[in-house]
Amino acid sequence: MKALTLRQPWATIVAEKLKTVEVRTWSTKYRGPLIIHAGKGWDSSAWDEFKAKIPDVYQRADFFDRSRGERGRVIARTQLVDVVRYDDPDSFLKDFERHFNAFTRFREGLFGWVFGRTYRLADPAEVRGSLGLWNFKGDPRVRVERST
Questions:
Q1: pLDDT for the residue 58
Q2: How does 17-29 read in b/e, with b if 16+ C-beta sit within 10 Å?
């Protein structure tokens, strides 16, 4: 199964089904199941942007602690259903509520990886991540939490 490493807090934001588009500088032809791996890095500027845009989620007591504690682990399973190209600021801004990237992050030629159904894993396993789209060698039937 393919996997994608995201820095925190982005990985947790995906696992919580709040972010359904991941912005990348490259495209892929791959479509199908995808494991979300929370990298060990922390994106402070993203955290500041996110908590300003969605304060109700940010204020949940467990959100910050959970995303801080889930680094270096596979935390969600999703479907990569499409990849869209952002050639102009309007198309990038149109999807803001799906990717939460500030307008200042826009540059021509970005890609939005569109996620379908996403499930948080019940037992986030510690796994070494990798750059790019990589092969997850763990159990592809990883147990997921019930959707609420």
A1: 57
A2: bbbbbbbeeeeee
- Residue range 98-125, pLDDT digits in tens: 988 888 889 999 999 999 999 999 888 8
Burial group, residue 147, by CB count within 10 angstroms (0-12, 13-18, 19+) = exposed
Residue 102 per-residue DSSP state = -
Domain parsing of the chain, residue ranges: 2-135
Rounded to whole angstroms, how far apart are CA atoms 69 and 37? 13
Domain 2-135 has CATH 2.30.130.30: yes
Q: Which residue has the tokens 């993203």?
A: 46
The b-or-e profile of 111-140 (16+ CB within 10 A means b, else e) is bbbbbeebbbbeebeebebeeebeebeeee
Alpha-carbon distance of 24 to 14, in angstroms, equals: 14
Q: Are 46 and 11 in contact (CB under 8 A)?
A: no
Q: Which of 64, 66, 63, 10 is nearest to 36 (CA)?
A: 10
